[in-house]
Write a structure and sequence with these properties.
Radius of gyration: 27 Å
Shape: elongated
Mean pLDDT: 80
Oligomer: single chain
Largest sheet: 9 strands, mixed
Strand content: 15-25%
Distance between the termini: 77 Å
Number of strands: 20
Number of helices: 13
Helix content: 25-40%
């Protein structure tokens, strides 16, 4: 008798479920008190963190989460339509270097295992007027290197390998983000107030935290209603790979009337060029012949636009009355050197418009933005990607802290800690870079003298010089944020 009753109950439950599914599939028909959307939603994947944007900064966050004890068990989704995320292509050492590179600090590069890179242990910066220069050396702070130049594709592949080797739980969705919504806290679904993401292939997923690492035109930032403040510079950057006769171990930067030019080592006899100029000049440089362009590069890195600065072998240095410096260049490391002569182009020339942009806030409920989604800066100091990595590691730390005390990792009060740590540091760096851009875009006699005095101060005042090197190499933070 009990068996018969049990069978009837089971049959009735099955029939009720079947009827509910049938009714839910009929347009406009719902069973009172039942929510068909809830049944459908229960079948959607749920992730702890959804990272929208699988570029270098997004992958850095994923790697940090995967290698931190408290966060390595998180279920992470990476949403990006870039086929490189699913590609198994190997970067061969004999392949020509790509012109898209990043200058990363020793403090950053220590976290990764890239395979093709170039370290530099010296840096020389000077002005086209010839009135001053400064040289930095790693040994001034008892280090072997000041920084490392890595091709973006090499760094990205290294981060991807790091993530794959971590053994953590993540899934790559090779699609674009179409829409994002957050259910009200009073929602009766088992997903509560999780963020719901709808992808370009028609599928959806839920996440406790959505991280926008999707660049300056961030879809996450747009959908979250986060506004930005910024402006366009009347400048473009032209980048390319060049070849010279000797291997380069120094980062060179010369400030010209229309913007700086940088020559950065990328291994063997190759270097990377980042040249800031007016849009008209960039169009001319891109269209001129290779021979003429190489000639222009050598001119810009040597005595074009003005004379070379003179090394001080004896006597007081120029502007010593402003810097209170009484020492002279006592070693070869202090002497001005000419940049290596470029012999040929080794890549195409690429041109990018320059701008400054900063998000007015970095977080909202269940959303945080990092990297270029939060800020874009002038490339004159190569700090853009390092600022993005700083964001990624800071957010990873905050998520770990939240898990340690049992907090919801998407709660605004927790995410505000990340914003409080990174926003002041980023604003300060952006202000410094913007100030440099404006100060070196004006050709005015008295200002030229002040700039030269600043170079001399940075070169001859040892404590100042050591602090600048420490900050630039990521060894120290600005005192305001220590």
């Amino acid at each position: 008798m009990n068996r018969i009753t049990a069978r009837r109950v089971a049959f009735n439950i099955h029939a009720l479920k079947s009827a509910r599914r049938t009714l839910c599939n009929n347009a406009g028909v719902k069973i009172p008190g039942e929510d068909c959307d809830q049944d459908l939603a229960d079948n959607l994947p749920v992730h702890d963190v959804a990272i929208v944007g699988g570029g270098m900064v997004g992958m850095a966050l994923a790697c940090s989460l995967a290698n931190t004890p408290l966060t390595k068990k998180l279920n992470v989704a990476i949403i990006d339509s870039n086929p490189a995320l699913l590609s198994s292509a190997v970067i061969k050492k004999e392949d020509p270097p790509d012109p898209r590179v990043s200058t990363v600090t020793p403090a950053t590069i220590a976290l990764f295992q890239e395979h093709r890179h170039a370290y530099f242990d010296k840096m020389q910066v000077w002005d086209y007027t010839g009135l001053g220069y400064t040289r930095y050396n790693a040994k001034d702070i008892n280090k072997e290197v000041l920084g490392c130049v890595v091709e973006n594709k090499v760094l990205h592949r290294s981060l991807l390998s790091c993530l794959q080797n971590a053994g953590s739980e993540q899934k790559i969705y090779p699609f674009k983000l179409n829409s994002m919504s957050t259910q009200p806290s009073s929602s009766s679904t088992r997903h509560g107030s999780l963020a719901k993401l709808e992808l370009s292939d028609g599928h959806s997923l839920y996440a406790k935290l959505v991280v926008g690492a999707d660049g300056s035109k961030s879809r996450v930032k747009e959908l979250a209603g986060i506004t930005s403040t910024g402006w366009k510079y009347s400048q473009n950057a032209i980048i390319c790979t060049v070849q010279h006769t000797q291997e380069n171990f120094c980062a060179w930067q010369r400030f010209l009337p229309k913007g700086p030019i940088a020559l950065l080592p990328i291994g063997d006899n190759f270097s990377n060029i980042v040249w800031t100029m007016s849009p008209d000049e960039s169009s001319n440089c891109k269209s001129m012949s290779e021979l003429d362009f190489v000639e222009e590069l050598n001119r810009a890195l040597d005595s074009g636009y003005g004379p070379r600065p003179k090394s001080q072998l004896s006597g007081a240095p120029p502007f010593s009355w402003l810097t209170n410096a009484d020492r002279t260049a006592s070693s070869a490391d202090d002497l001005f050197e000419a940049a290596p002569k470029i012999t040929k182009l080794a890549s195409e020339r690429m041109v990018f418009p320059l701008s400054l942009n900063h998000a007015n806030r970095y977080v909202s409920k269940r959303v945080a933005i990092i990297g270029d989604a939060a800020h874009t800066v002038h490339p004159l100091a190569g700090q853009g990607v390092n600022m993005g990595f700083g964001d990624a590691f800071s957010l990873s730390k905050v998520i770990s802290q939240g898990i340690a005390v049992g907090s919801d990792i998407g709660e605004l009060s927790l995410l505000k800690r990340y914003e409080s740590e990174r926003k002041p540091a980023n604003v300060t760096m952006m202000a410094i870079l913007d100030g440099f851009q404006k100060a070196y875009s004006i050709d005015f006699g008295p200002l030229n003298v002040l700039r030269a005095a600043a170079f001399q101060g940075a070169h001859y005042i040892s404590p100042l010089k050591k602090n600048i090197i420490s900050y630039a190499s990521g060894e120290q933070r600005f005192p305001l944020f220590s």
